């Protein structure tokens, strides 16, 4: 799969690792919670993204931008803010 950029790649990778037990196929349109994600898995996902990317990410971001693509968009936009 081709990724738009490092943000989409990091988010999809984090979704896949967090949801590994579900065997879900993750695309940019995939909703973390509809694929079986929980608040505990979400916290782990956020921690993973904090290590992978040089941008602030919160659990609130995940609850507001539930799909991989939407979360990548939030992080991308935040990264370019001065």
Give an account of the 3D structure.
- The protein has 82 residues and is an all-alpha fold.
- It has a single domain, classed as Non-ribosomal Peptide Synthetase Peptidyl Carrier Protein, Chain A, CATH 1.10.1200.10.
- Helix content is 56%, strand content 0%.
- The protein contains four helices and no strands.
- It has helices spanning 6-18, 39-52, 59-64, 68-80.
- Helix 1 (6-18) packs antiparallel against helix 2 and helix 1 (6-18) packs across helix 4 (68-80).
- The longest helix is centred in the middle third of the chain and has 14 residues, at 39-52.
Gyration radius, in Å: 11 Å
CATH superfamily: ACP-like
What overall geometry do the principal axes of the alpha carbons give? globular
Strand portion? under 5%
Distance between the termini: 31 Å
What does the largest sheet look like? Answer: none
| Category from helices, strands and their pairing | mainly alpha
Q: Which fold name corresponds to the CATH topology?
A: Non-ribosomal Peptide Synthetase Peptidyl Carrier Protein, Chain A
Helix/strand order, N-terminal first = HHHH
How much helical structure, as a percent, in the residues? 55-70%
CATH-defined architecture: Orthogonal Bundle
Beta-strand segment tally = 0
List the helices and strands and how they pair.
Layout (H helix, E strand, L loop, with lengths): L5 H13 L20 H14 L6 H6 L3 H13 L2
Helix pairs in contact: 1-2, 1-4
């Amino acid at each position: 799969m081709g990724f738009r950029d490092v943000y989409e790649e990091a988010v999809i990778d984090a979704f896949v690792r967090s949801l590994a037990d579900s065997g879900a196929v993750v695309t940019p349109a995939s909703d973390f919670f509809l694929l079986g994600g929980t608040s505990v898995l979400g916290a782990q996902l956020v921690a993973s993204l904090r290590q992978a990317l040089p941008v602030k990410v919160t659990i609130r971001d995940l609850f507001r931008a539930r799909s991989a693509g939407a979360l990548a968009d939030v992080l991308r936009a935040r990264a370019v803010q001065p």
